[in-house]
Amino acid sequence: MNEENLYTFKARDQTYLQYYFYGENSKEKPTIVFIHGITAELHHIQQFALKIKTEVNVIIPLLRGYDPTLKRGDLYYIGQYDDDLEDLEIYLREGGIHNLYWVGHSMGCGNLYRYLEKGCSKGTGIIFLSPFFHPSLPVYRFNQQSDQEEDQLFEVKFYKSIILYTLHRFKIGLLNRAKIATIPDDFHQDRKLTLSFRLLFSRFPVENNLKSLHNSKLPLFMMIGEEDEITDSSKMCDLWRDITNHPFTVEQGEDHNSIISSDNTIIKVKNWIKDIQES
């Protein structure tokens, strides 16, 4: 593997899923798998990778529904992301990569929490950046009485989501492919991408009590920007402190996305990994 190349791995449904690789071909070197949020934010994540790749290899999967070469805005079934993460980890371990860490940003934290909850990961640790675990948690700033954000970039049909969630609870899945959100398309400038209920629902924990954070035997680390415009950082820290003894930090001057590639984030991620390796 050479730095900044695009590779594929084969998932259990025989689909080839793409990922970026940043670093060098060293199986002993720590490797981070970075899971993006509701938008891909590739610019920020690639900056993170470029800054840390000397010490840590970085893999950035292009998730189903986002990858421009595959079916977009939808999955084939609820929970398919869980299977894709497990297939990716198996692929990496079969390739000799065992010093493996997961990093999630925003809704990517929901993906990693689901994966942690199911006990699938044999990884070394998980970092949650600007975590968006579950929309029902009382830590987020969005107004659920409005169907559209003020900046017109994101549109989420909250009431439609509630109806579909209720139907899902009664095991009625005929409308799971219905579109409930519109976001900026990171792969096509000036276009938008619509996301289905089953795609978004596959990014949230089934329950919102986050008890797996308390029960986790894997090292966990939460980082959030003091100026996060999506999540109230003080409320998130209080919630984290109430649930688990794992460490967390608030980054001064950083918001929901800027924290990804800030120099302080890079330093703290490297130090956290180093502490785990030396423990």
Question: How confident overall, as mean pLDDT?
Answer: 88
How many structural domains can be distinguished in the coordinates?
Answer: 1
- The helix count comes to 8
The first-level CATH class name: Alpha Beta
Percent range of helical residues: 25-40%
Q: Spatial order of the strands in the main sheet?
A: 1-2-4-3-5-6-10-11
> CATH topology, which one?
Rossmann fold
Main sheet characteristics: 8 strands, mixed
Strand element count: 11
CATH hierarchy: architecture: 3-Layer(aba) Sandwich
Q: H/E order of the elements?
A: EEEHEHEHEEHEEHHEHEH
CATH superfamily: Alpha/Beta hydrolase fold, catalytic domain
How would you sum up the global shape? Answer: globular
Which structural class is indicated by helix and strand composition? alpha/beta
Euclidean distance between termini CA atoms: 29 Å
Describe this protein's structure.
The chain is of the alpha/beta class and 279 residues long. It has a single domain (5-142, 203-278), classed as Rossmann fold (3-Layer(aba) Sandwich). The protein contains eight helices and eleven strands. An eight-stranded mixed β-sheet has the order 1-2-4-3-5-6-10-11, with helices on both faces. The model is unreliable at 144-152 (pLDDT under 50).
